[in-house]
Amino acid sequence: MKTKTWTLLGSLLLAAGVAHAQEGYSAPGFPMLPVHRPLPPEVVRGPLASPVLARFWHETDPIRQAAGRDQFFKFVSEQAHYPPAARPASDRPRDLMPTGRILVSVLVRANGSVRQPPRVVRRELARPEADYPPAALRALDAEALRVLGALRFVRSQALQDSLLVPMRFITE
Questions:
Q1: Residue 45 lies in a domain
Q2: Which DSSP symbol is given to 90?
Q3: Between β-strands 152-153 and 160-169, what pairing exists: parallel, antiparallel or unpaired?
Q4: CA-based nearest residue to 64, from 52, 74, 55
Q5: 104 pairs with which residues across the strands?
Q6: CA–CA dist 83, 81 (Å, integer)
């Protein structure tokens, strides 16, 4: 009788086919193996190429000055993005995201290039700096320096010009 039972059980198992493990299940006492999912594509930004901008602060004609200023701020606003590193980590969702204005000093050489690196002069944030994670503040600074460090201006007779550029970071 036992032989017939085992034979019947064996034939039923063979007829059922190959066993597949359930996703998200492990036997008691055994660790669950991680499910390998592909990583999301990393956003790779190439080096910024600024158009050659007018030195609008030297213009005496108000119309040309306004046009140069608009072109300058258009480039900055199109290229600057709220950095993902300033957003809270998934394990710390209650961290605040810094919002506000960063003032950056930019020195423009006579040949039109920006003396590297631009310097963050002051942060005017919605809350005190101590309320935000230091890594988030560094990410905002790095984004401002990335965009403003790529600027190019027309050549000038002046040895060097100094600009104080406000950059506003807000969350969407």
A1: no
A2: T
A3: unpaired
A4: 55
A5: 120, 165
A6: 6
Q: Report the pLDDT averaged over residues 99-125.
A: 92
Tokens, residue 23 = 């996703």
**Domain presence at residue 21:** no
User: Dihedral of CA 150/155/158/159: which sign?
Assistant: positive
Asked if residue 127 belongs to a domain, the reply is: yes
Domain count of the fold of the chain = 1
Nearest CA to 168 out of 31, 105, 76 is that of 76
Neighbours of 106 (CB within 10 A): 19
The pTM of the full predicted model, rounded to 2 decimals, is 0.69
CATH number of the domain enclosing 122: 3.30.2420
User: Token pair for residue 110?
Assistant: 């006579």
CA separation (Å) from 115 to 1, 51, 84? 92, 17, 27
Q: Phi, psi (5° rounding) for residue 103?
A: -100, 125
What local confidence, expressed as pLDDT, does residue 18 receive?
55
* Domain encompassing residue 79: 52-88+96-169
Q: Are 132 and 125 in contact (CB under 8 A)?
A: yes
Query: What's the pLDDT tens digit per position in 21-59?
Result: 555 556 676 666 666 666 556 665 667 788 889 989 888
30 located within any domain: no
| pLDDT value at residue 94 | 78
